[in-house]
Structures are given as C-alpha cells and as structure tokens.
Amino acid sequence: MPEATSPGASLERAAEGIALLRLSRPARLNALDDQAVRLIGELLDRVDDDDGCRVLIVTGEGRGFCAGFDLSMAGDAPGSEHGETQAWMKRQELFAGLVTRLRGLRQPVIAAVNGPANGAGLGIALAAEIRIAAKSASFNAAFVKVGMSSCDIGVSWLLPRAVGSSRSFEMMLTGRIVQSEEAARIGLVSEVVEDDALMPRALEMAQSIAANSAFAVWMTKRGGWANLESASLAAAIELENRTQILARSTGDLQRAAQALLSRRKAGA
To answer: What contacts 83, CB < 8 A, 6 or more positions away?
Structure first.
C-alpha cells in the first residue's frame, strides 16, 4: 500500500498486512473539517481495495485522537447559497458516512485512542471493532455541549451496545468527560495502557488478528455486526450456519486440520 500524507489524514503501512490511518490536524486536536472527512473517506477506499491489508489501526497525531467537528465551521456550510438546510444535511451525511464506511470495511479496525475523543471522535472510536486507550485518553458525547443532539454520527446506536442504555443516556445527556480508566471499567474500551505503549499494543493485537484466515476474519466482522441487529437467536444462528459452510469452502479449515494432525503426529 503506497503511503499517502495530506493535511487532515495520512495512511501508511505499519507492518506486513497492517495499515495505519492517522488523523492529522494536531493543532486542532485532529478536529474534522470537510476536507479532512473527504480525504479520510478516500483513504478508507484504498484500504478496502487493498487485498494485502488485513487490519486497520486508526489513531490521532499529537495529543488528541479526534476533537470532533471543527467548530470554526459552525457558521456556514459549503453550498449554503443554494439552501442552508440542504447544505447542512449534505455535510451531516458526509460526516456520518465515516462511521458506516469504517463498519463496512472488510478489515477489522482497531482504534488506538491517544487523547481526547470528543463528539465525532467518539463516533469514530465506536465504529472500530476494538478500542484500546492510552491513559491520557478521554471520551465524551460533546454534541449536547454545543446545542446539538447527542444522537449523532451513529453514537446513539453504537454507544448503548458498548456500555448499556443507562450509561449511554447518562453520557449523552450530560456530555461529561469519561477518563480512560472509567472507559475500561464500563466496557467502552478493551484495555488501557501507558501512552508510550499504545501503538505497540495496537500493533501486537493487529498482528494476532492478521495471523488468522483473511476470509474467516472478514466473515467474523460481518457476522458480528449483522447479529447485533438480528431479531432473534434463531436468526443469528441461521446466519452463522451459512457463514461457516461458506468459510469451509475456502479450504482453510482443511489446511488447519491437516497442520494440527501433522504437529500431533510429529510430537507422538
């Protein structure tokens, strides 16, 4: 994967099979403007098209993960001269599309949260399958603090599935800051590490995922998200059954079984 660096975001190869997307507006704690959001979308397309990429790590440059929507743009939206409501809806859909784009990737996403994840930054972190936090990380549904609904960029769907409905409503209604240790305690993140250990730990986890069958990992991501929306246990199992038979057709199960039997025979 060729590296790409532009104002707003950069993409690089962190290790074999592992891409690193870095949000890069450090002077504004990586707050998102329209240009940055469009660029991130383009970089995610590159990740999705790269058959050699097995896992994506998302982090922020400098002291922050992502401070959310850049409030310097709050006065106007591109194209407002043709209708303010239409222009703001277009911008809203552009920003919210980051979450569905991350979720739709074939590759699992690890959010390495290295500082504040506010508003849209919280939404991006929640869109990842796995979240690891540095001790300096913090989280809040900042939307309500600036006169907007906290039901934004997928947070009202993703957050209660991570922490439960009561904690989710409390976070969204107050907009309070949740520090890293609390985030781990309530299930918002998988673990908390020292700041200088964040990227090594994210890379270690990415490598453990990349060591597995690419198709099996892809189907696990797809099935896991799909069954969060499943209407019943029976419907979830129906999907699982078909996915397993599809996965078997790759031959990975047969190869893994043969390798295991060979190791056992060699140790006998």
So the answer is: none
Report d(CA 268, CA 257) in Å as an integer: 16
Q: DSSP secondary structure string, 42-62?
A: HHHHHHHH-TT--EEEEEEST
For residue 13, list its beta bridge partners: 19
Confidence of residue 267 (pLDDT cuts 50, 70, 90): confident
Instruction: Give the Cα separation of 215 and 221 in Å (integer).
Output: 10
Q: What's the predicted TM-score (pTM) here? A: 0.93
The domain 4-210 having CATH identifier 3.90.226.10: the answer here is yes
Alpha-carbon distances, residue 116 vs 32, 124, 153, 211 (angstroms): 13, 12, 17, 31
Cα 43 from Cα 21, distance rounded (Å): 8
The residue extents of the domains of the chain are 4-210, 214-267
Looking at residue 251, the DSSP 8-state letter turns out to be: S
What's the whole-number average pLDDT of the chain? 94
pLDDT tens, residue by residue, 180-200 = 999 999 999 999 999 999 999
- What average pLDDT does range 205-214 have in this prediction? 96
- What is the rounded distance in angstroms from the CA atom of residue 156 to the CA atom of residue 207? 31
> By C-alpha distance, which of 6, 184, 33, 207 is closest to 21?
6
Distance CA 70, CA 76 (A): 12
4 - beta bridge partners?
11
What size, in residues, is the chain? 268
179 neighbors 115 (Cβ within 8 angstroms)? no
| Poorest-pLDDT segment among 93-102, 166-175, 249-258 | 249-258
Residue 159 carries which side chain, given as an amino acid letter?
L
